[in-house]
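Whiteboard transcription, Tuesday session. T.W. wrote the structure tokens on the left side:
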């Protein structure tokens, strides 16, 4: 089959706004003021570390910092209101990446902008100076400001930066703030783990929880191959591969690792858990004895190397991105694709407009179980990759700290979670009971159940530890999949990076 590439930009935004789920919005306008800071170019090189934990809350964009300077952006405000009167009257600086463009196709970003607008409406005496950057620019800029000791009052913290920035005294210990929050009993406690160091909490997990690893498959194609559902064993996938190859498909599963992070976030995090179980990774995070060189993790690396050499994946998997690979599924060239929740949003929005038959026959499944794995089963990795964190300097102004705290609690509280549950069938930090799925189509209901009901969860590796470790591992994984490095050498190099940087 001939490869095709479907480039969608402005059109995709419109499709996603009206496609997979219908968002409610009203015209409340806020003014966004960008800080007078310099950002690096948005283009990321292969050597730079990007994670799927970040992708769960954002789509790739090309907006630069200059484009966000003194722009007016529209967000939707509900009729909810935040907590009571505050003593502070002044300015609060906020940096995040929920741009207006992104909110058109991302339920978490739409919800975040909605609750920000409502908080501003409820507190007219407080000026919220927002720096809103595309995700790549955000990561560059927040790291630059952290290095300079000049973080905004309120910003989004990645889990992998928690320990280092806490040790440097850059971020506030929010343990007492969080535990005394009026919403504390409603928080999903599991989401706090990436933002915890020595039992201290450094942020309120923000935006929506989404999987980084899901098999998206054409139910009709697999039924024709003899499977009523996606196989639970890799041996069956290999058998199906013979059928698909003899019936015009170039590959059985589409995958893209061109950005290097995908094999870690979208595959190894789950496969590793299948071999090691959850205690191994928690020990790695806690530095209580686990090592990348442990036998079970090396087995996970070996399996990963072998399965990608088996021929069931597209030949160009190590050079194309997940955005490229999902087009192979959308075009019907591949009967399955492995990606994250952001890919599901794109696939759903696109197919709903271009191929309703495939849209209605798309199913979701966990990765099959390796035959020699003795760890977890039926797992997919899910989490909140960012948290609302506070600059430690706010301790010098208690009224301003109280206002920033109120903001952080509100934008991660029940108003946000209820909004995204009602409008997008998504989950936030605050639990929402008895989500009504009846308003959504089968595609959306099935993915909700896959994400939150029918599967067991495991951690996203690169939400934790250190970007310096993942940069080494991700680069070496790509080299290993090219056949130029052994699993043992990959494990050894990762362990050396871990010991040197964590």
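and on the right, the sequence the group agreed on:
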């Amino acid at each position: 089959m001939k490869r095709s590439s479907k480039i969608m930009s402005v059109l995709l935004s419109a499709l996603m706004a009206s496609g997979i789920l219908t968002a409610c919005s009203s015209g409340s306008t806020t003014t966004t003021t960008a800080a007078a800071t310099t950002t690096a170019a948005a283009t990321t090189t292969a050597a730079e570390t990007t994670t799927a934990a970040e992708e769960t809350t954002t789509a790739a964009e090309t907006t630069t910092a200059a484009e966000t300077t003194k722009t007016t952006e529209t967000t939707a405000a509900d009729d909810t209101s935040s907590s009571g009167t505050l003593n502070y009257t002044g300015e609060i600086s906020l940096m995040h990446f929920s741009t207006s463009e992104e909110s058109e196709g991302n339920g978490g970003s739409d919800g975040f902008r909605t609750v920000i607008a409502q908080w501003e409406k409820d507190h007219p005496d407080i000026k919220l100076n927002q720096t809103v950057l595309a995700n790549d620019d955000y990561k560059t800029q927040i790291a630059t400001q952290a290095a300079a000791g000049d973080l905004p009052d309120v910003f989004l913290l990645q889990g992998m930066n928690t320990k280092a920035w806490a040790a440097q005294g850059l971020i506030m210990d929010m343990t007492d703030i969080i535990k005394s929050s009026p919403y504390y009993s409603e928080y999903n406690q599991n989401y706090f783990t990436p933002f915890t160091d020595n039992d201290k909490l450094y942020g309120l997990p923000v935006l929506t929880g989404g999987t980084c690893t899901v098999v998206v498959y054409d139910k009709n194609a697999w039924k024709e191959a003899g499977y009523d559902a996606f196989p639970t064993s890799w041996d069956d996938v290999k058998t199906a591969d013979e059928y698909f190859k003899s019936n015009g498909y170039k590959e059985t599963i589409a995958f893209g690792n061109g950005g290097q992070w995908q094999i870690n976030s979208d595959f190894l995090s789950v496969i590793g858990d299948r071999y090691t179980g959850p205690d191994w990774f928690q020990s790695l995070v806690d530095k209580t004895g686990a090592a990348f060189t442990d036998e079970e993790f090396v087995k996970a690396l070996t399996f990963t190397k072998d399965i990608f050499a088996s021929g069931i994946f597209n030949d160009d998997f190590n050079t194309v991105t997940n955005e490229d690979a999902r087009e192979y599924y959308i075009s019907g060239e591949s009967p399955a694709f492995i990606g994250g929740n952001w890919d599901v949003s794109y696939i759903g929005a696109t197919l709903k407009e271009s191929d309703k038959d495939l849209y209605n026959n798309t199913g979701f499944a966990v990765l099959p179980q390796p035959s020699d794995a003795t760890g977890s089963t039926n797992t997919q990795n899910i989490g909140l990759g960012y948290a609302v964190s506070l600059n430690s300097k706010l301790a010098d102004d208690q009224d301003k700290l109280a206002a920033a705290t109120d903001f952080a609690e509100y934008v991660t509280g029940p108003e946000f979670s209820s909004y995204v549950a009602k409008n997008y069938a998504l989950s936030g930090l605050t639990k929402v009971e008895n989500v009504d799925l009846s308003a959504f189509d089968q595609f959306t209901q099935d993915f909700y159940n896959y994400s939150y009901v029918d599967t067991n969860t495991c951690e996203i590796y690169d939400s934790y530890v250190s970007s310096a470790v993942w940069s080494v591992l991700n680069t070496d994984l790509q080299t290993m999949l090219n056949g130029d490095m052994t699993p043992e050498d990959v494990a050894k190099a990762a362990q050396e990076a871990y010991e040197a940087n964590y």
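Someone added at the bottom: The mean pLDDT is 84.
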